[in-house]
Every structure is written in C-alpha cells, then in structure tokens.
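Sanity check. The docking grid for nicotinamide-adenine-dinucleotide depends on where the pocket ends up, so I'm generating a full predicted complex first rather than guessing from homology. Inputs follow.
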Amino acid sequence: MNRIRLAVIGAGAIGRKHIDVINQTPQAELVALADPSTQAENLAKDLGVAWYADINEMLDNEKPQGVINATPNTLHVPCAIACVERGIPVLVEKPVADSAERAQQLVDAAKRHGVPVLVGHHRRHNALTAAAKKLIDSGELGNIVAVSAHWILQKPDDYFDVSWRREPGAGPLLVNLVHDIDLLRYLLGEINKVQAITSNATRGFANEDSAVVNLRFASGALGSAVLSDCGVSPWSWEMNSAENEVYAHAPENCYLISGSKGALAMPQMRWWRYGEQSGWHAPLLQETLNIEAIDPFILQLRHFLQVIRGEVAPIIDANDALKSLKVIDAIRRVSLNAA
Ligand SMILES: NC(=O)c1ccc[n+]([C@@H]2O[C@H](COP(=O)([O-])OP(=O)(O)OC[C@H]3O[C@@H](n4cnc5c(N)ncnc54)[C@H](O)[C@@H]3O)[C@@H](O)[C@H]2O)c1
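Predicted complex below; grid placement will be based on this.
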C-alpha cells in the first residue's frame, strides 16, 4: 500500500507528538516540516525530511496529501485555510480557532472547497470515551442529572517561557477546558447556558489561571467544571487517563456523571448502581469496565488517513469544534473576574 505523504506545520510540543505518531504508523510518511524555528530546522535535519520556514512554500513544493497543523492558536485558521484552498485535508489542533468568528471562516472555506477538516480533540478517539458514550446511550445510567468535571493540573513555570502561552486567548479556558467541553458535549449533548468566575490571582498573567464554570445541557442536566493550571492536584484527564506518557499517572477520576439509574466515574470507568433495592439506605453495586488502552493520537491519525482517502467524514469537523468554541466564548463573555 502506498504510504500517505504528510506534512506537519508547527513542530513544537504537540507537533513533535504528532511526528512520533506518524513515524509509528506504517501507512503514513512524514515528508516535510513547516516551522520557522531553528529547533524545527534541526529536527527536520535529524528526521531527514524537508524543512520550510514558510508554510505556503512547503505546501506548493511538497504537495502533501494531508497536513497536521499544530501551530499556536492564532495561526490555526490561516494555516488551515492555506491547506483547504489547495485541496489538502488538514488536522487542526484544538481549539479550532482563537475566536468563533475566525472558526466560522474556516468552516466556510472548508465547505466552499469541499475539503475535510478534522479537529484535534483527540479524546474523542479514546476507547474510554467510546465506552462511556455506549453506556450512557444504552440508558443504563437513566436520564443524566448532573456532571462534575475537574481539570486542575499545575503547569511548570517554564511552560510560560513561550510568549504566545501568556498572551490573551491562550489561557486554560481555551487551551484546556475546550477539551473537557468537547467531551462533555459528545457524551451528554449540547450546552445551552453557562455561568463562570475566573481568576488570575496566582500567575498574574492577562489570561485566567483558574475558573469555576456552571453548565446547563439542553437535556436539562446540570454540570460544573473546576479548572486551574496552577493548583496541585491528581484530578485531570491528562493525569488520570494515562493516554499520553508525558504526563505522570494518577489513577483518579476527573468526571463524575450521575443519572437517574446509575453513575459513572471517568476515566477509571467505575459504574455504580442499585441492586434490588434503591434509595439512600440501599448499598450501591460497583463494577469497573475494563477498557483496552490504545494511544488516542494513534487512533486519531488512523482516522485522519481514512479521511484523506475519502473513506469517512471527520468524526469532529470544524463546525462541530466551533460549537465547543462557542461554549468557551460564552464562558469568557459572562465570566466575573475574581482576581
Ligand atoms: N491535543 C492536545 O492534547 C494538545 C496538547 C498541547 C497543545 N495543543 C494545541 O497545539 C497547539 C500548539 O501548542 P504547543 O504547546 O505545541 O505550542 P508550541 O509553542 O510548543 O509549538 C508551536 C510551534 O509552532 C511554530 N510556529 C510559530 N509560528 C509559525 C508559523 N508561522 N508557521 C509554522 N510554524 C509556526 C513554533 O515555532 C512552534 O515550534 C496549540 O493550539 C495547543 O492548543 C493540543
């Protein structure tokens, strides 16, 4: 089988993860990197692939069959539009854009050119997510009543040495909570109301470092999310799901989902329900769903290759990702800043 020729735009932290995944995938071949940094130039030399400082030059010279766009948030849309205008399917890292207006430009361009855009909400490819979705959709939990989500993960101070990560729009609402919002929307349906308080009291950057958010789902379920990139905690998808070995593993749960018939704690997949008797005097039965772990970035790339071959539509396209971004935009708009 001919390998699919891929290029990566933006070979920083997550770009290098994508490169590793391409190199582990026999059906794909990395042909070029586009990234003006000297680290990227050196990496391309080490990998023996072409290097370009300019993405347009790379796209015109290399004509890749697919592109992974792992640039800073503000470049997602212009880089992705440069791909779709050339008819090249693109996997754009999340958030799909730095604002809903710009995401809409990409949605429109993808439609106009008839080119698929997959958005890098990689948790959608995780087998844990699929198992939770199956359980919820089966009705075993009953009507979902409430969900509590935590994303509290202390980023090292040198993470913020990279300037774009300190600039407006790159705070943990847009960079991190957007993952949780996407997953909660996927599992529980659309969110139609939000309330929020943010704080930058600890890091003191223009962006929030912490937030509390209330959510109402169209189904009537309610949710809350607690978010911080400066607090110490074992409660975050990264630390709890063990999906990416760069994060230390803590086998805790960061999503507690409760329905009228049962409850699920994710990602340890503890399923709770009553036996013959129910109500607060009755003991709860607990079962753990055993899920085979496969790196979701590998599954995401396999899916992207199918998208490039025209076999399937993206499981999360720019329009779907825009809905998660609109929730984040609404949270940012209504936030009271407690700093
Ligand atoms: N899916 C995930 O779990 C995940 C994890 C981390 C980051 N991300 C997302 O990936 C994106 C990148 O984050 P990061 O932490 O890897 O950032 P980073 O700063 O480590 O990497 C960004 C790279 O883009 C390059 N770049 C800058 N301008 C460019 C241009 N004009 N053309 C080409 N390359 C350019 C930089 O030189 C750098 O190497 C962000 O949008 C972030 O939200 C996603």
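Relevant for the grid: The first helix runs from residue 13 to 23.
Also worth noting: The chain is about 35% helix and 25% strand.
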